[in-house]
Amino acid sequence: MVEAEAMGLIALGAGLAVGLTGLGAGIGEQSIGAAAIGAMAEDPKFFGKGLLMTVIPESIVIFGLVVALILLFVF
Amino acid sequence: MCGLFKTPAYAYITARVRARKRKLIPKETYPKLLNMQLPEIIRFIEESEYKKDVDELSAKFKSIDLLEHALSRSLGASYRKLMDISRGEVNYLITEYMRRWDVWNIKTVLRGKYYGASEEEILNCVVSAGELHYPELELMVKKESIGDVIASLEHTPYYPVLTNYEGGMLNKIEDELDSLSYTRLLDAVGGSPGEKFFLKFIKTEIDIKNLKMLFRLKKAGVEREHVQNILITGGLELKESDLTRLSGLSFPELVHSLDGYSYWRSISDVVSDKMTTLMDVDTKLDAHLMNYASQISHYYPLSILPVLDYVLSKKIEVDNLRVIARGKELKLADEIIRSHLVM
């Protein structure tokens, strides 16, 4: 029973790790994406840089995913 | 939380205006333009960001007139684009700031009608950059009399002021229209950190407009009562009491009483009580305003301030190109043209 509760909490933690980092990345990306689209609208040469800048906040989701995987498979 | 949803709108428009500002002619290019002859200047402008406007107007105008109209058209199109690509709060602020062009156009049409100018002549002088679009301005110009023009503006915020027109000279309602555009703008600005600087800028702009008028009117020896009616209240440093005091002074007294204001640093080297031309003062005051807008545009990158910086820089670029082209046409010395450039 105790083990099942612990597993549940680990799963909840893993979910939060991915979910909250996804939310944070989304909040960060909304402005970066809008600015990138604005810059590209004026000069299409900004496409590469704009895309790169937009996906930078995605790295935080990867950290979240790593934490989730550690929670699920190491503990 | 509300700011979270406003941020992308500001991020989009500020990225666009910063990219647009990069395309403006850098100030290092103006000395090169001064070394060119008029045909070369026209060719330079034809090959720049103004190409589309020059091409579209080339069948209708030639030489310097083509240049003038292309510059005005580009200015109007740039400002309209800003209104079209923005939304929400930033769009509201830009629209309110651009009302000055509505006022400009209404004044142009009324003056044109007053002096009996042709429809084409009036339309050549309007800049469709405000809330009134070109087709609406065309309809206005087609009206027979000043009364009809005023009646056609019934749905606009300018109508209550325009109904005060009782015939004769237009200067009274023109001054009231100017005041109205600034009053509306001051009321429209909110309390966010970026908007606080925007408000400060507008108040500085009012001060500079008042200073320019004070210099002109006092140089012409106009009496206090008339001066006071023309000045706009709501400035940053020139409060109502300052305006009352300054408008009662003679020109030499006015010059000597300005050293207590921050604007004095910008104009002190060109102002004296024996000065003959006021062009240098206007240029210095415009440069002060441009530098101030440029300086504050970096304070809050996701606000109206970078947009304001672009709006002002674009206007100054158009004015500078016009000064160079007209100066070259009139064969003025390079030094004189240079002194009238806002840099």
TrEMBL record, chain A:
Keywords: Membrane, Transmembrane, Transmembrane helix. The keyword Lipid metabolism does not apply. The gene is atpH. GO terms for molecular function: proton transmembrane transporter activity. Residues 12-71 form the V-ATPase proteolipid subunit C-like domain. Belongs to the ATPase C chain family. It is found in: Membrane. It is a multi-pass membrane protein. SUPFAM superfamilies: F1F0 ATP synthase subunit C. One of its GO terms (cellular component) is proton-transporting ATP synthase complex. Pfam families: ATP-synt_C. This is ATP synthase subunit c. One of its GO terms (biological process) is proton motive force-driven ATP synthesis. The keyword Ion transport does not apply. InterPro entries: ATP_synth_F0_csu, ATPase_proteolipid_c-like_dom, F/V-ATP_Csub_sf. The chain crosses the membrane at residues 51-74. Its main location: membrane. It comes from the Archaea.
